[in-house]
């Protein structure tokens, strides 16, 4: 089987090594190495999905690298590097070889532009230097979809299949992508309230490569059916909660600056009837304070003037307007205090984590 590497912008056959990649199990051919990945890597993958080994993360490049480091630790001497990481190290080795006039340097297999599929078909790989970015973007899209929570099984299977194919298409690692995906997709399914055992899917590698070999035109229906048969609902209380429809989409929290700006605008709009009710000169302090609030000055002095103007309105018809002003001013003042307290509080937390001091009563109450 011929492997390819990128040289001068062209696909060129790579020199085939006399032996398989360096390994810790004494494998002498690809079959033995694949068996080691399946058996030893499968055991380590089960440790991850069963939480005997907890590897926290949100399925980005760093998270998958940590999973790979655990899953393949018994098989390869160097683990925990994506193809992008290996390519960077390879470039550094190349520079060192050129500096030392060392002609023995050879491109790493991580720079390959193709791999051989389960049925011998060539499958195009994305450039190695894009792997980490692709993984991080996939993690972001999963976070926006709340990691597939809140989905009924048919929709979950569809989206799970798409995520699985994107990870497989990216081919994050030079070695061990199969058992790493078993662990990764098991963790993702669990977070969404489902169970999946990819290592029990018949002909998974063949079905996957059949889709990937045809690029974007690949038909995933057979693969989707196979994955769907291996996916079951988690019957635990946590699993049921994770499938609730209310968790389907995460509503991003607006930035504090935007919340404060909207609160100030609400205060200004609520105060406009007060200006109309006050005679010209008497409205000057109120106008001045509202202008200050508009420019971002929500100091107690400015808010005090606005509140006093609202409280001076005694007529029943102005009571709703005055109450609106009071509520808006209270919100602006509360947000101001939160902004002032946040840096000091965060600084205290950082010192606490460093063991520099014990929490004070005020820090505990906050």
Question: Which terms summarize this structure?
Answer:
single chain; Fic-like fold; 14 helices; 6 strands; about 375 residues; two-stranded antiparallel sheet
Helix-strand makeup class: mainly alpha
Task: State the total count of DSSP E strands.
Answer: 6
For the record, give the distance between the C-alpha atoms at the N and C termini, rounded to a whole number: 64 Å
Mean pLDDT: 82
CATH topology of the largest domain: Fic-like fold
Overall shape: elongated
Q: What oligomeric state best describes the polypeptide chains here?
A: single chain
Helical residues, percent: 55-70%
DSSP strand (E) fraction? 5-15%
Q: Could you tell me the radius of gyration in angstroms?
A: 30 Å
The CATH H-level homologous superfamily of the largest domain: Fido-like domain
Q: Widest sheet: strand order?
A: 1-2
Element string (H = helix, E = strand): EEHHHEEHHHEHHEHHHHHH
Given the structure, what is the number of helices?
Answer: 14
In terms of per-residue confidence, which ranges show pLDDT below 50 for 5 or more consecutive residues?
1-18, 355-359, 362-366
Estimate nothing, just give the exact number of structural domains.
2
Largest sheet: 2 strands, antiparallel
Query: Regarding CATH, which class of the largest domain?
Result: Mainly Alpha
The CATH architecture designation of the largest domain is Orthogonal Bundle
């Amino acid at each position: 089987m011929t492997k390819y590497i990128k040289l001068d912008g062209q696909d060129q056959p790579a020199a085939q090594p006399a032996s398989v990649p360096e390994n810790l199990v004494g494998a002498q051919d690809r079959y033995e190495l694949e068996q080691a990945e399946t058996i030893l890597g499968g055991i380590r993958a089960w440790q991850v999905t069963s939480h005997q080994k907890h590897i926290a993360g949100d399925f980005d490049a760093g998270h998958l690298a940590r999973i790979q480091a655990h899953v393949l630790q018994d098989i390869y001497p160097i683990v925990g590097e994506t193809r992008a990481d290996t390519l960077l190290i390879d470039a550094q080795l190349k520079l060192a070889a050129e500096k030392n006039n060392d002609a023995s340097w050879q491109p790493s297999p991580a720079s390959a532009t193709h791999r051989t599929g389960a049925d011998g078909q060539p499958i195009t790989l994305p450039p190695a230097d894009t792997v980490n970015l692709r993984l991080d973007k996939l993690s972001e899209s999963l976070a926006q979809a709340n990691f597939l929570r809140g989905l009924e099984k048919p929709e979950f299977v569809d989206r799970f299949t798409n995520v699985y194919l994107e990870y497989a298409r990216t081919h994050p690692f030079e070695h061990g992508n199969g058992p790493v995906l078993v662990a990764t997709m098991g963790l993702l399914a669990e977070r969404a309230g489902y169970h999946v055992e990819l290592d029990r899917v018949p002909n998974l590698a063949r079905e996957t490569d059949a889709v990937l070999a045809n690029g974007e035109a690949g038909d995933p229906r057979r693969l989707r059916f196979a994955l769907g048969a291996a996916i079951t609902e988690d019957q635990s209380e946590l699993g049921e909660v994770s499938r609730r429809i209310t968790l389907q989409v995460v509503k991003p929290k607006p930035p504090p600056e935007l919340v404060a700006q909207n609160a100030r605008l609400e205060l200004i709009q609520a105060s406009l009837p007060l200006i109309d009710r006050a005679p010209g000169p008497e409205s000057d302090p109120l106008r001045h304070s509202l202008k200050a609030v508009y420019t971002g000055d929500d100091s107690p002095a400015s808010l005090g003037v606005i509140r006093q103007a609202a409280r001076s309105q005694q007529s029943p018809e102005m009571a709703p307007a005055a109450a609106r002003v009071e509520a808006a001013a209270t919100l602006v003042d509360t947000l101001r205090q939160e902004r002032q307290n946040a840096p000091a509080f965060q600084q205290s937390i950082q010192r606490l984590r460093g063991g520099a001091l014990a929490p004070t009563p005020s820090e505990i109450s906050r």
